[in-house]
Amino acid sequence: MFSGEVSGDEIFESNLELHTDIRFKGIQYIINDFSGVTDHSIDLGHTEVYASTDKIISKTKHTLAIALVVPQAHFFDLAKNYCDLMRGQTFECNIFQTVEDARSWISKSE
Known about the structure:
Blueprint: E1 3-7, H1 8-20, E2 29-33, E3 36-41, H2 44-61, E4 64-69, H3 76-86, E5 91-96, H4 99-109
Parallel strand pairs: 1-3, 2-4, 4-5
Helix pairs in contact: 1-2, 2-3
């Protein structure tokens, strides 16, 4: 879960930590909860970096469902850009207003 003011680098570092964790190969989904974020310094270039690194990782990880919880309207375009860039890849991405909606989607994906 992310909260407060979040930078593009913080998200990138979080992704790297996840990708290098030995348990990563065993997970089937991730819920990135941005509902606690009040401000950010993220731009479209960051989402392109996230998508390109996830595409590389997907070649060894294969499938992963990525749920983005983004209830703030002003953050939606960034989340949508990332999901659009991931379209057609082995990592599936979707955006939700609540964690409950994300969990429901995950349960249907399993």
